Amino acid sequence: MSGRIRIVGGGLTGIMAAFEAHRLGWRNIELHERFDALGGVARPKVVNGAEMRDGCVYFGPEGDVLVERLKAQGATFETFDNRFGSLSLDGAGKRVFTWDFGGPAVDCASLRIARPAGDSLADRIAAYSSPIAETLAEYCRWHLGADLAAVHGEAAIPLAINRVYPAGAETPALVALKASNEWADELYGVPRGLSGRTANVTASLPAGGFTALFETCRRALETRGVDIRFESLISPRQVMAEHAAGDTVVWAANPTPLFKPMGLSTPSLVKKSFFTYVFEAQFDGPCPVYVQNFTAKGDCFRAYLYESGGKTLVVAECVREADLRALPGEIRGLLSGFGSLKTGALLHSGAQPRWIYHSRDAIAGLATLREKLTERFGPSFVCGAWEPYGKSAKLAEVDAALAMARNAPAAGLALVG
User: Fold this and answer.
1) Which residue among 139, 166, 298, 320 sits deepest, i.e. has the most Cβ atoms within 10 Å of its Cβ?
2) How far apart are CA 252 and CA 236, in angstroms?
């Protein structure tokens, strides 16, 4: 293939797009990354040889498509027992720990469920019976601080409330309902120990950490002749102005800058920053492990314990700037279902915006943007799987778009606006 392919964004989506482009036959491949290393938001800061991770990012077990593709490029992974849990409140306000379930457990016996009346997060929550709906609404207001009617229902996935366990219901009745009702299966969950489910018993992490993974990817890409351009902040207008017939673009970066050049208004976004704190730790339970907090109390919505650089570390992801006097106790309380934790020195803290909770306006705007890009450029402008949250869904979407671009007649791009 003689045409050039320019990939904008050196996170995992851009990296995998470059590997797939090479597999499909492109040989003139440019990968533009605005920072000085690959990895995007998944690349952690390293302090004294240990990775300061901003959150819990896992890969699937052995056999997972993404894992196997990365292993084919020289990456190595370590598989572990996937342990996790959640903390919720029962009807009396008492804290209840649920093992091997990452969603909220609500003290409710009712299995009433309805098809959501619309596509908002508020509509999705209203599909449950009142005790569950009220609990979820309170949690979402604590976590997001946004109008739930303006947030898209798919935000339930990164919020970890896409499935709820009605802890007061009879398990056999719940399992039977999930088997017979599409929406019940979508909206209800059963803890792994009660359901016999084995799909997520194991997970994996890159051996040596994420920095080692991204360095392996860099070497593999360079071996294949990919031209990686670091500290390359490339604009949509520049990409389009320099585009020639037969070229292809993959926009794996934030899509917000694309709206104006395409003559579209930028949609309103759910603007939320989270605060993270990494402590040294001693723990007598499983590692890695994470626990979600659905009590809507305190500052920390998730505690994640992991090993890096010969140390055991725990990161607290918080909905606001935390009270550092109270935070170690919050973390200990969250992880107490799995073991006894002692926190040591605070090694790292940070705050960053996260664009993982889409507004309804953003989802509609992205659909319009895709339509405009397709009308003008055909398959030679590949969108970077902006809407899906899961890594596998992103990979499949970009793969399909690259295959379409590979088989399409050569076409040039034209600048709009």
Assistant:
1) 166
2) 12
Closest CA to 151 of 252, 268, 5: 268
Q: What H or E segment, with its residue span, contains residue 186?
A: helix 182-187
The DSSP code sequence of 347-377 is: EEEEEEE---S-BHHHHHHHHHHHHHHHHHH
User: Which residue is associated with the tokens 């607290």?
Assistant: 316
**In terms of DSSP bridges, do strands 28-32 and 105-106 run parallel, antiparallel, or are they unpaired?**
unpaired
How far apart (Å, rounded) are the C-alpha atoms in residues 388 and 226? 26
Q: Has this prediction a pTM greater than 0.85?
A: yes
Half-sphere exposure of residue 393: CA atoms within 13 angstroms, side-chain side: 7
What's the burial of 43, exposed, middle or buried (CB within 10 Å: 0-12/13-18/19+)? buried
Residues 6+ apart with CB under 8 A from 68: none
Q: Is residue 412 very low, low, confident or very high in pLDDT (cuts 50, 70, 90)? A: very low
Q: Is the pLDDT of residue 114 over 70?
A: yes
Both tokens of 202, joined, read: 């194991």
Q: Are the CB atoms for 51 and 57 separated by under 8 Å?
A: no
pLDDT tens per residue, range 68-93: 999 999 999 999 999 999 999 998 99
CB-count exposure of residue 49 (10 Å: 0-12, 13-18, 19+): exposed
Q: Is the peptide bond before 288 cis (omega within 30 degrees of 0)?
A: yes
pLDDT tens-digit readout, 167-187: 999 999 999 999 999 999 999
Q: Is 253 exposed, middle or buried (0-12, 13-18, 19+ CB in 10 A)?
A: buried
What CA–CA distance (Å, rounded) separates 276 from 255?
Answer: 25
* The two structure tokens encoding residue 324: 């550092």
CATH domain 4-43+210-264+357-407 topology: Rossmann fold (3.40.50)
Average pLDDT over residues 108-113: 95
